[in-house]
Amino acid sequence: MDLSFVSLWIVAAVVIVLIWLFNSIFVIKEWERGVILRLGRMLPEPKGPGLQLVLYPIDKLTRISLRIETLDVPSQDVITRDNVSVKVNAVCYFRVVDANLALSQVQNYLYATSQLAQTNLRSVVGQFELDEILSEREKVNSKLQLILDQDTEPWGIKVTKVEVKQVDIPEQMQRAIAKQAEAERERRAKVIHADGEFEASAKLADAAAVLQRQPASIQLRYLQTLTEIGVEKNTTVVFPVPVDILAQWMKANGGNR
Q1: Residue 97 CA, distance from chain mean position
Q2: Residue 209 counted as domain residue
Q3: Are 91 and 128 within one domain?
Q4: How confident is the model at residue 245, as a pLDDT?
Q5: 184-221 pLDDT, tens per residue?
Q6: Do 33 and 102 touch, CB atoms closer than 8 A?
Q7: Is a pLDDT exceeding 60 seen at residue 257?
């Protein structure tokens, strides 16, 4: 009877030890850190990766992932600085750099970062005009990332990157932007055409100056023109006559009359 009672205690002790070991041994992955609460007090250093032994039930271990988290910021209604209503959504990348702060300073760092990203997206985008949001996207992203990183630093979180994904513009504003782009294209075409006319007139002025210094070159130009016409085998021959000869002829006929 005594032996069976002792054996029962031994079995109970073994079961208790196995249960204790089951609740005290943890395997922490490479990208995780284990924050230890010992009787409600947080140990200064979290447990690293590998096999870790904690003192159950005195110690309580909480796993914190150090990998980069991807946070999809929902579409937000924003009024830009030039009073245009747009819908903007974004994506935020962040990671935990201090597991102890992420657990002790905020109840749910994922939810808190999400709400903070939404409010900052509305406030930051509202500081820019529509043209700046569309053409200077990197400037908006940098400012968002800087503000979020400063606000989440006390939580042990590092915001690595923020990207504005899509900007939805009202249909009326889209038509106005299309008209503006069309007008800009027409303006550029007119400027290019005017520049071409200016360059052509400058070249013609240079050619006229050369012909004025060398009058014989005009005759050579006449002959070259006739040669080009003859190569095409045209039945009509255009013979250039100097204007001064026509003027003298008309003057002579007028004197005879």
Answers
A1: 26
A2: yes
A3: yes
A4: 61
A5: 888 889 899 999 888 888 888 887 777 777 777 766 77
A6: no
A7: no
Beta carbons of 139 and 162 less than 8 angstroms apart = no
Amino acid at 55: L
pLDDT for res 210: 77
Q: How many residues are there in the chain?
A: 257
Q: How many CB atoms lie within 10 A of CB 126?
A: 15
Buried b (16+ CB within 10 A) or exposed e, 130-148: bebbeeeeeebbebbbebb
- In total, how many domains does the chain have? 3
Q: Quick: pLDDT tens for 100-139.
A: 999 989 989 999 999 999 999 888 888 888 888 888 888 8
Same structural domain for residues 111 and 190?
A: no
Domain of residue 87, CATH code:
3.30.479.30
Question: Which of the two residues, 249 and 82, has the higher pLDDT score?
Answer: 82
Write phi, then psi, for 124 (nearest 5 degrees): -75, -45
Domain containing 109: what range?
Answer: 69-169
β-bridge pairing 50-53 and 32-38: unpaired
Question: What is the value of pTM for the model shown?
Answer: 0.64
